[in-house]
Amino acid sequence: MIDTFKTLLGDAGVLTEPDDVAPYATDWKHTVRGAPACVLRPRNTADVAAVMRIAHERRIVIVPQGGNTGLAAGAVPDASGSQVVLSLSRMKAIQNVDPVGMTIEAEAGCILKTAQDAAADVGRLLPISLAAEGSAQIGGVVSTNAGGINVLRYGMARQLVLGLEVVQADGTVINGLRSLRKDNAGYDWKQLFIGSEGTLGIVTAAVLRLMPRPKLVVTSLLAVADPAAALRLLKLMQDELGETINAFELISGLSVKLVEEQFGQRAPLAGNGWFVLIEASANLGGLREAFENVLSRALEQAIATDGVIAESQTQAAQLWAIRERITEAELKAGRSVKHDVSVPIPALPAFLADAEASVSSGFPGARINAFGHAGDGNMHFNVLVSVDTDSAALNRSVYDLVAIHGGSISAEHGIGSYRVAELAHYRAGAELSIARLLKRSLDPKGILNSGKILGMEK
Ligand code: 2HG
Ligand code: ZN
């Protein structure tokens, strides 16, 4: 098998040495350690198609991998030694950036930050933004339907994909790299490949929507007593500032403390409850004044207890650094069990209170590192635990409450291999049946990222 792939991709296109393969074998959190037979590094779509033809003929499981920044272990192989990682990293060209049509076309391996910069160079905004944007790749962003901090205003990756090129399980290439805003000519098949984590096909390139680049940006950190106050603040902000709000991030006191402990970076305001990081942007003047007015009202009405507005881009970056360092601070702090959940926005305070009560009583000593994109109902309800904590029991205690509050066990990180059992438990019935029907039709031999999302097909 290795020789066949070497003939196809050349020596540089096939990694087999343990040191070379190691980074592709484990996820960002190093929770899962797989054993790939080898790592393939195609140069273009034709290479990917040729790899899939061979894999299809010989029933080789292919695990597509982008920047490997995911938090659900969806891009790493299992430990069998037979799965092959397909890294898209060498396919990183930006094919086109169009400031009039407001689109960008890029290959799957293009780093998200590189694509953002290319859009900025022509005065446009690629609004997908996440802490891992310096390593995450477009193919991974699309195939996991990534979220991030701007979902409130611009939606998830799905809302920004106009066109897609996909290689199917048998090597067939579907070229749908259209940049049309309106295209109702038949089924919108590309939606199947967005968010299906490489289990239905391999995304090799995408056309994404761009937005006008806002000239005015206001970034502000506020202290609030609790999540209910945060939602009152959200309502007030939306009433007064409308769609200018890009991000509305709710951060627990413990999250801020972890960043301080691990990185020595302090929040520039006092607070003994929760914090909210808000970013608003616009092209027309008056945004700063409007924001200051609404902040004063929030303080007067005791919705917020304190607040600062960044005076410069550097200060804004410092405020964002507090938010973006939470994940690394958590990793440094020891073992944690992550829950990337969403509930209907009004249910957030009750869910957080119930989940905190349930975890505190069931798992004494556990500390809750809750933070997230409250403006779209998505919280990262992560729990710092000791080495002997039963994570399955902990998951159950959180996810049961997610279900009671009408939420989802994965808001933006996907199912990957972490949450396969939970998906089967919390999404029973017709929803799983249609998922299996799609999987069997598009990947009848079960060679695309097998074991992820639906588990191993029996
Ligand atoms: C974020 O919002 C990411 O920063 C990571 O989705 C969340 O570490 C996490 O659980
Ligand atoms: Zn997030």
UniProtKB/TrEMBL annotation:
Family: Belongs to the FAD-binding oxidoreductase/transferase type 4 family.
Protein's organism: Bradyrhizobium jicamae
Lineage of the organism: Bacteria, Pseudomonadati, Pseudomonadota, Alphaproteobacteria, Hyphomicrobiales
Name of this chain's protein: FAD-binding oxidoreductase
Keywords linked to the UniProt accession: FAD, Flavoprotein
Family matches, as SUPFAM superfamilies: FAD-binding/transporter-associated domain-like, FAD-linked oxidases, C-terminal domain
FAD-binding PCMH-type domain boundaries: 32-213
InterPro entries hit by this protein: FAD-bd_oxidored_4_C (IPR004113), FAD-bd_PCMH (IPR016166), FAD-bd_PCMH-like_sf (IPR036318), FAD-bd_PCMH_sub1 (IPR016167), FAD-bd_PCMH_sub2 (IPR016169), FAD-linked_Oxase-like_C (IPR016164), FAD-oxidored/transferase_4 (IPR051264), Oxid_FAD_bind_N (IPR006094)
Top-level taxon in the UniProt lineage: Bacteria
Pfam family membership, one: FAD_binding_4
